[in-house]
Automatic annotation (TrEMBL), chains A, B, C, D:
Species, as recorded: Jiangella rhizosphaerae
Domain of life the protein comes from: Bacteria
Predominant subcellular localization, coarse grouping: cytoplasm
This protein's name: N-acetyl-gamma-glutamyl-phosphate reductase
Role description: Catalyzes the NADPH-dependent reduction of N-acetyl-5-glutamyl phosphate to yield N-acetyl-L-glutamate 5-semialdehyde.
Active site annotation, chain numbering: 151
Top-level taxonomy: Bacteria, Bacillati, Actinomycetota, Actinomycetes, Jiangellales
Gene: argC
GO molecular function: N-acetyl-gamma-glutamyl-phosphate reductase activity; NAD binding; NADP+ binding
Family: Belongs to the NAGSA dehydrogenase family. Type 1 subfamily.
PANTHER family linked to this entry: N-ACETYL-GAMMA-GLUTAMYL-PHOSPHATE REDUCTASE, CHLOROPLASTIC-RELATED, N-ACETYL-GAMMA-GLUTAMYL-PHOSPHATE REDUCTASE, CHLOROPLASTIC-RELATED-RELATED
Entry's EC annotation: 1.2.1.38
Length: 347, 347, 347, 347
């Protein structure tokens, strides 16, 4: 066991998933686990699945508690993670699962979050393709600070970026509608997240351009398109499942319909975690449950003049905790795939 | 009790919902119930909720079995309903819940169904607004043949038609993505409809312009827009719920953003079954479960240049069986709302 | 419209269900709606399904606000309802959906609730059979105070009481295990009721003889058995559905196995809301969703020496709100079935 | 990679789960995959989660196709597995996930299955405790034929066996009620397994002593109790989840209430896959999803004179595929826990 990892915010869903994955990782060990209001509780009271950590207690989230580890992963509310991160030593690898360090544009941060911008860190989506043929993976080896992408953002980006990079879809009128599992909203005690409200119901939220993931998606897709501004209509909907995001993303066809599939096939041919499915087979979130895997499919609707690209991920795995560990592997010089499950728990 | 209603295809989900609603209708009584492969079975074996009809047996679907009723409602696979309808007397009110008589364009029928067009009947969506300010309701009093709309079609049409009729959205680049309950797919024994496959999963189907509801939506929206051609990208997704459709429909803003809400408010101000929700409150399928009600909300995303309109219906109620009875009420000269529930069974 | 009904505690699930049913009741109208912490909110913000009451605001729960109605229904936490009830005039019909007035045994109340006993009211389960052949229905006409049964209690009682009354099962070693929908736990913001925790999970609660519904079940079954003491092992489990209770109840066979079915058939032969299903057909909660209906089935397991009786109800309908209105109908001299749905919203 | 494993019946749910687990196993590799009616299909068409096996095709289930492997695992319908097994060489390790070789009592087999008994194999439930203090684990090293337990059987057995072995509960009046996920019923196309029928519904099946798992449970519990005959009332219920079994098992207290917990604690103290939870924490199926883990809790209801023991497992993992691999590890002399996940995918 090479390195130890401290988890800040370990009582939440992202924290639990990080611990699940770390328990199976051959080179990363579980270090201190911290929480805010739940400090002092036994970890297993919040995560009954973590039976191997039944003797662990949640410590308060402080720089002292997090000290002495090779890696610190922050699974904290936005705003909080920047404060904690600022107190950690420069030579520790810090990964922030919150939003604080994702955006490069301070004005966009200010517009969507209304607080001061904490600055941007290398972005932990290795498979993000750039117009120039490179990928975001290049930025991660040796990094000491990494911003883990938002889960909705990962789904939309992986669905559409290859087409923008290849120039076969236009960046100026993208429409994304997502079916999202409830764990993406976390464990906060809000009435609309009660089981009685969710089961049997589909409902939208943050409609009309107000969702905070929008500037992050635009930032990624602009990178893919080589700088062209990205216009995006984005609507997430809650559906009755705990995990999973199915992102249906359409953009105007701007090239040869016959070149569309090749753009996606080329982009993801060698990726261990992102797969273009065989023709005619469409993604389902069940197939990626618990796995650090994205399934993608694409087709052209010639009558509508649009390409439809669909991605399925597990919001807690490839959408958060798996992405963090994948990036940590890269930063630490470990094999990128080490310790990460690729097969979904289906059915 | 004024009239009796025979149901052809009573073993399926639409048939069961028709019977549930008819049992509570003060002027329409349940007549003969028929089926194809299930003929001879007790009705309650297929619909345990219909305890009041526990002594009924399913008869074979023949013109003879359906004779002698004031109203016949066909809940049959497409292709079959036209054959049965052709054998029924002209003076009986016949409502077809299948697709056979919905499309006015024989070429569109041929393109999507590949069989000969059976002709078109008056279309049973009373709340469909036309450019000229009228509504589809006008076509129904006294009608003897009525084509009941498709469930996905109803959701998309009710979501967007007011904006097209008022000219505040453009008809040329509409994108609709739907979260659909499984009962819309009927009781057919297909592996992807097994509970183990559906629970915990969101998955798309009929992606890329191939879904048979597309020409019907275009027909409706073209009526709303006053004849302008309609371009539509349409993607339904299955989500883990038995009933319900949540349609997220976006179209390019083509007028004054400040006029958008009024277009919807005016269109539905006096409607008993279609409601524009209070500002800020978004539809959820749970709120219309079992009710002949559509909930609609709309907003403008100025940054994206798009209007987002969302509708929630119960696919079996307002989407099929409720629509049939609402149209029957109109055709028979009964109060339009007679016997139809308006309050959803939530949570 | 004869009488008006005030609802105290209208923001919760029982309150919403009472309003849904009252909106469809031909003789009872919706009066004042009150709440505690939600007073001042618009009703529709908590119950989007109650679109017909979109202009209603929740008033504070006070005796003044509840005055001037023919009927007051209390959907309040235990302890609170007795306090409010004490302030209401004697000539108003008051129905308490809480536990405060259900138990006749003050010691049992003290043991399970730890507070002073408020006294007992006539018990609103009309179909409860007594050893002497009578039913609880007899106690309700003209009553001015009625205790509405607990939902789990209703399911277990209706499942087993006929066998005890007929003497074909023994009262001394009854085992009941229930699969319960989450709405029975109300809208309280508890972590274990979050959708993410419930979906995909079955979990027990209040195991080992500590659930507060136990003395109420014993009271009912003792009435059925003619006074013999009742020993009961009772385990409820939460399963991923919003509504519904499936109670599996077994008791030792104490008579002739051949007489078992007749005991249930006789008890429920003329009941409008409780049905012994045809042989071989077992209850499912889906078939009673939204209906004031209980489905029951029974069989003998000779090898185990036990009778197995199973009942399905909707906890909010027959389990709470429907039961209240059924009892109110009886108390007011209206037809018992008036305004109450009997067909479940399935699938 | 030491050994290769062929899977017969790889298109079903048990087959898919076996392959998921084998892909993560360091010493067992995936060999031939076979099917009956699905032979010739691509494996990924049936198991989209098995993206790493996307190039595999299902071969027909024949002895020839299964030859040349170190291990063969049969995931076939009962009756079929015995036929296939009979054609396999003696020196190959064969594990049967079906029922054919579980029962030692030919008469019990005949009574519940109605066909000729194929004989019994060493039984693959290592944690089954015997009255004499030993465990079933002892029978497995070096075995060449292993009968994998039924999933419901595993849950009930692990819940109650420690109490019988310790003599603190009586074997003569056991009652087990289970909440079961749908994948236990397999992929067979039956109407009651359609998603529309299952979601929102709890329903019992095989009620009244007719379920085929009953003699297998009795056989196990009799072993635990040291030969005393076991009387069992067993009722499984289907609830809306894909995976998971929650078994609520009660038996009469026959010893000192104060000794109860110790019986379970002692039995499972050193088990890697079966855990008695901390006092007050009850099992939930979510916590064992995808894991080869059983969570157990027990309490005494003194008023009812019964012990209540509850176990949660994943029917496909610890209930079937995980159990097979755990037993294979033991038979092959590998570490028992090799390649088996212990942390559930929660929430």
């Amino acid at each position: 066991m090479g390195a130890t990892v401290a988890i800040a915010g370990a009582s939440g869903y992202a924290g639990g998933e990080l611990l699940r994955l770390l328990l199976a990782h051959p080179e990363l060990g579980v270090g201190t686990v911290t929480a805010h209001s739940k400090a002092g509780d036994r970890l297993i009271a919040h995560h009954p699945q973590l039976i191997e950590l039944a003797d662990r207690t949640l410590e308060p989230t402080t720089a002292e508690a997090l000290a002495g580890h090779d890696v610190v992963i922050l699974a904290l509310p936005h705003g909080t993670s920047a404060q904690v991160a600022a107190q950690l030593p420069d030579d520790v690898l810090v990964l922030d699962c919150g939003a604080d360090h994702r955006l490069t544009d301070a004005a966009a941060w200010q517009r969507f979050y209304g607080t001061e911008h904490a600055g941007s860190w290398p972005y932990g989506l290795p498979e993000l393709v750039r117009k120039d043929g490179g990928k975001q993976r290049d930025a991660l080896p040796g990094a000491k600070r990494i911003a883990v992408p938002g889960c909705n953002v990962t789904a939309v980006t992986l669905a559409l970026a290859p087409g923008l990079a290849a120039g076969v879809v236009a960046p100026d009128d993208i429409v994304a509608v997502l079916a999202c599992g409830t764990s993406g909203a976390g464990k906060s005690l809000k009435p609309h997240l009660l089981a009685s409200e969710i089961m049997g119901a589909a409902s939208p939220y943050a409609v009309g351009g107000v969702h905070r993931h929008i500037p992050e998606i635009q930032q990624n897709l602009q990178l893919a398109s080589g700088g062209a501004p990205v216009t995006l209509s984005f609507t997430p909907t809650l559906v009755p499942m705990s995990r999973g995001i199915l992102a249906t993303v359409t953009a105007k066809l701007s090239g040869d319909a016959g070149s569309v599939r090749a753009a996606w096939a080329d982009a993801y041919a060698d990726e261990p975690f992102v797969h273009l499915l065989p023709e005619g087979q469409w993604p389902t979130t069940a197939a990626v449950l618990g796995a650090n895997t994205a399934h993608v499919q694409v087709t052209v609707d010639e009558a509508a003049g649009r390409v439809v690209a669909i991605a399925a991920i597990d919001n807690l795995a490839k959408g958060t905790a798996g992405a963090a560990i994948q990036s940590a592997n890269l930063a630490l010089g470990l094999p990128e795939t080490l310790g990460l499950p690729t097969t979904g728990v289906a059915p």
